[in-house]
Design brief:
This protein is mainly alpha-helical and 197 residues long. It has 2 domains: 133 residues; 47 residues, no CATH class. Helix content is 71%, strand content 10%. It contains 6 helices and 3 strands. A 3-stranded antiparallel β-sheet has the order 1-2-3. A hairpin with a 4-residue loop joins β2 and β3. α2 packs antiparallel against α3. It starts with 6 loop residues before the first helix and ends with a helix.
C-alpha cells in the first residue's frame, strides 16, 4: 500500500519528480532583468532632473539678461526684447513642464516595477500559490511564458511535441528558426538560444 511507505521516502520521491531548477534560474534572470530595468529608470529620472536644473539655470540667466536689457534700452527696444524673452521663457517653461511630466511617468513606472519586484520576491523561488494568483496552470505554461518573454516561441509538431523554436532578436531584427532534435543536448540548445538573443 502507498500509505504503508515511510513518509520521508514518499516526500523524497515526490521532490525528485519535480524539476524546478530551470524555473529557479528563470526567476533569477527575471529578478536580474528587473534590477537592470530599475537602474535604467533611475538613470533616466536623474537625467531628467539634471536637464530640469539646467533649464532652470538657463531661465535664471535669461531673466538676468532681461533685467539688464530693461535698464539699457529704449522703450521700443525694451518691448521687443520683452516679447522675445517671453517667448523663450514660455518655451523653457514648456520644456520644463514636459520634463516634469516625463519624470513623473518614469517615477510611476519605477513604482510599478518595484511593486512587481516585491510581488515576485513574496512569491519566492517556487512561485507562490499559482492557483490563487492565476499566473500559470503548470510547469510547462510557466516555461512557455518565460520563453515568450525572452523572444522564443515554441511550436508543436504532429505528435504534440515541441520540435521547433522561433527565436526573435528585436535589437538586431533577426529571426532564427531552430528544429529541436534529440541528438543535441539541452545544454547545446540553451547556449544557442542565448547566443542568438
Amino acid at each position: 500500500m502507498l500509505l504503508d511507505e515511510d513518509p520521508a521516502t514518499l516526500i523524497h520521491h515526490t521532490i525528485g519528480n519535480f524539476n524546478i531548477t530551470p524555473d529557479k534560474l528563470a526567476v533569477a534572470r527575471i529578478n536580474e532583468s528587473l534590477s537592470t530595468l530599475q537602474q535604467a529608470r533611475d538613470l533616466q529620472v536623474r537625467e531628467a532632473e539634471s536637464s530640469l536644473k539646467k533649464l532652470a539655470r538657463t531661465l535664471q540667466t535669461l531673466s538676468n539678461h532681461h533685467a539688464e536689457t530693461i535698464s539699457t534700452h529704449s522703450s521700443t527696444a525694451h518691448a521687443s526684447e520683452i516679447a522675445t524673452l517671453d517667448t523663450q521663457k514660455f518655451r523653457i517653461a514648456k520644456s520644463a513642464s514636459d520634463l516634469e511630466i516625463e519624470s513623473e511617468r518614469l517615477s510611476s513606472q519605477l513604482a510599478d516595477l518595484q511593486a512587481r519586484l516585491q510581488e515576485l520576491e513574496l512569491q519566492g523561488v517556487e512561485g507562490g500559490d499559482n492557483a490563487k494568483r492565476g499566473l500559470v496552470d503548470d510547469e510547462i505554461s510557466l516555461k512557455l511564458k518565460v520563453y515568450r518573454g525572452l523572444g522564443i516561441d515554441l511550436e508543436r509538431d504532429e505528435n504534440g511535441e515541441y520540435g521547433k523554436a522561433v527565436v526573435r532578436n528585436g535589437r538586431k531584427g533577426d529571426v532564427h528558426v531552430v528544429n529541436v532534435e534529440s541528438k543535441f543536448s539541452r545544454f547545446f540548445y540553451a547556449n544557442y538560444f542565448w547566443g542568438t538573443l
